[in-house]
Specification:
Layout (H helix, E strand, L loop, with lengths): L2 H6 L3 H21 L5 E7 L3 H17 L2 E7 L5 H13 L5 E4 L9 H7 L11 H9 L7 H14 L6 E5 L6 H10 L3 E5 L6 H5 L4 E4 L17 E4 L3 E5 L2 E5 L4 H4 L5 E2 L6 H19 L20
Parallel strand pairs: 1-2, 1-3, 4-5, 4-6, 6-7, 7-10
Antiparallel strand pairs: 8-9
The chain binds nicotinamide-adenine-dinucleotide.
């Protein structure tokens, strides 16, 4: 890789290593005052991609010193059984974070299950109370992928207040919480999606462009303002030249000469998602302590009040 590319590249692996080192240090401090942070991961069924995600999450937790509990349930698990397990984990004071790996089998109501998780243990930030809290600017657990994207932006650009950020995609997992976090960071935010008119023109106005679409190489140089910072959340598998590879929503080679900084795929946003799951587990453990004064509560994983 030449120097030109290196200087523009936002290295998600290196950033994630820094976040994990912070988490490891924090775990040590917690253990020193008698708190053993623990994360429960629940997987229903045998989806191969989900199995890999769960394995990676458990491994990262263990590397940071976070105790992990795996609950692997068969694909024909009844919704009532899953809800009973979640109730058990909610009631267990030694479990600080609960993650239900998505997608769930079709016979289970995903919304009902996510709503059953205690909001203080909701390390994915998907519970309606946390979603609402984020949009109100309250201090809540925040979805890991957008939290990781914000950290990448702040690490590489410093203060982003006043910038025009355009988010492509309005999903509950990435697009909407990303927009809320950018607003909290005092950006002017535009959200565009599959029904937006003038998509390309709107994207061309962005100082910061976050692409969370799921369409391989949708965005090329023609969509970008010169000097824009690009965060590519997309992970798309394509078969090219007889081999299978991962590409983002941004055409990296076309975009590179136009941008001031860009995340690669793979090695950009992906590693930060798991790193922020660890941060959220620690934030959850702190939020559950009876006397908040025992530890400083604030971290980047929580969202302070804004006006
Ligand atoms: P989603 O399918 O839930 O949402 C996609 C959004 O893109 C929708 O809001 C839709 O309106 C919009 N969209 C679709 N086609 C469009 C088009 N042609 N033009 C403009 N907007 C369009 O997907 P998601 O869960 O938000 O994930 C988006 C991408 O990010 C996927 O590739 C996913 O794999 C990836 N992802 C990566 C991570 C990570 O850790 N790196 C985490 C979550 C998701």
């Amino acid at each position: 890789m030449n120097r030109h590319i290196t200087s523009k590249l936002i290295d998600g692996k290196a950033a994630a290593a820094r976040v994990l080192a912070e988490a490891t240090l924090e775990v040590r401090k917690m253990k020193a005052i008698g708190i053993e942070p623990a994360l429960a991961v629940v997987l229903v069924g045998h989806d191969p991609a989900s199995q890999v995600y769960v394995r990676n999450k458990v491994l990262r937790a263990e590397e940071c010193g976070i105790r992990s509990l795996e609950h692997r349930l068969p694909a024909d698990t009844r919704e009532a059984e899953l809800l009973a397990l979640i109730a058990e984990l909610n009631a267990d004071a030694s479990v600080h974070g609960i993650l239900v790996q998505l997608p769930l089998p079709a016979h289970i109501d995903e919304h009902r299950v996510l709503q059953a998780v205690n909001p203080l243990k909701d390390v994915d930030g998907f519970h309606a109370e946390n979603v609402g809290g984020l949009s109100q600017g309250r201090e809540v657990l925040t979805p890991c992928t957008p939290a990781g994207c914000l950290r990448l932006l702040q690490d590489s650009c410093g203060d982003i207040s006043g910038k025009h950020a355009v988010v492509i995609g309005r999903s509950n997992i990435v697009g909407k919480p990303m927009a809320a976090l950018l607003l909290k960071a005092h950006c002017s935010v535009t959200v565009v999606h599959s029904k937006s008119a003038n998509l390309r023109e709107l994207c061309r106005q962005a100082d910061i462009l976050v692409a969370a679409v799921g369409r391989p190489r949708l965005v090329d140089a023609d969509w970008l303002k010169p000097g824009a910072v690009v965060i590519d959340v997309g992970i798309n598998r394509v078969d090219e030249d007889g081999r299978s590879r991962l590409v983002g929503d941004v055409d990296f080679d076309s975009a590179l000469p136009q941008v001031s900084a860009i995340t690669p795929v793979p090695g950009g946003v992906g590693p930060m998602t798991i790193a922020y799951l660890m941060k959220n587990t620690l934030a959850a453990a702190r939020l559950q302590q009876p006397a908040p004064s025992t530890l400083a509560l604030r971290t980047e994983a929580t969202c302070p009040s804004i006006s």
